Amino acid sequence: MNIPTNLKYTKDHEWVSIEGDIATVGITDFAQKELGDIVYVEVDTLDQTLSKDEVFGTVEAVKTVSDLFLPLSGEIVEFNEELESSPELVNSDPYGDAWMIKVKISDTSELDSLLSSEDYKALIGA
């Protein structure tokens, strides 16, 4: 299982990459394997400011729909539109082409609540 050490993680199985005050968010390799074949990604919160842990979208797999929770408070400034036509990228490249949103972080103190790759491995028993 792929768990890059340069990323941060959440207990909701999302990964976070921080560049300045922008966080890029996607779901982890573990999450996409648990969900199975992804058939649809919906994010209807573009240009909205949400609080940490609010639902920012959903991922639909063949057998289930799963909410996506915002790992950090802020404004959703970009959605990966490639996922509208190619949701299967979440299965094939969860840490690359299948990023989901970019968030302008409004409270940097929340970064402390994110998990390291080691903490995330312990969470999922990897």
Could you describe the 3D structure shown?
By secondary structure, the protein is of the alpha+beta class. Helices cover 18% and strands 35% of the residues. The protein contains 4 helices and 9 strands, in the order βββαβββββααβα. The chain has helices spanning 29-35, 82-85, 89-92, 117-124, and strands at residues 8-9, 14-19, 22-27, 38-42, 49-50, 55-61, 65-69, 74-79, 101-105. Strands 1-2-3-9-8-5 form a 6-stranded antiparallel beta sheet. The longest helix is centred in the C-terminal third of the chain and has 8 residues, at 117-124. The mean pLDDT is 96.
Give a short summary of the structure.
This protein has helices at residues 29-35, 82-85, 89-92, 117-124, and strands at 8-9, 14-19, 22-27, 38-42, 49-50, 55-61, 65-69, 74-79, 101-105. With 126 residues, it is of the alpha+beta class.
Distance between the termini: 8 Å
Quaternary structure annotation:
single chain
Q: Kindly provide the radius of gyration, computed on alpha-carbon positions and rounded to a whole number of angstroms.
A: 13 Å
CATH class: Mainly Beta
Please, how many domains?
1
Shape: globular
Spans of at least 5 consecutive residues whose pLDDT stays below 50 are: none
Proportion in β-strands: 25-35%
List keywords for this structure.
OB fold (Dihydrolipoamide Acetyltransferase, E2P), six-stranded antiparallel beta sheet, 126 residues, 4 helices, three-stranded antiparallel beta sheet, alpha+beta
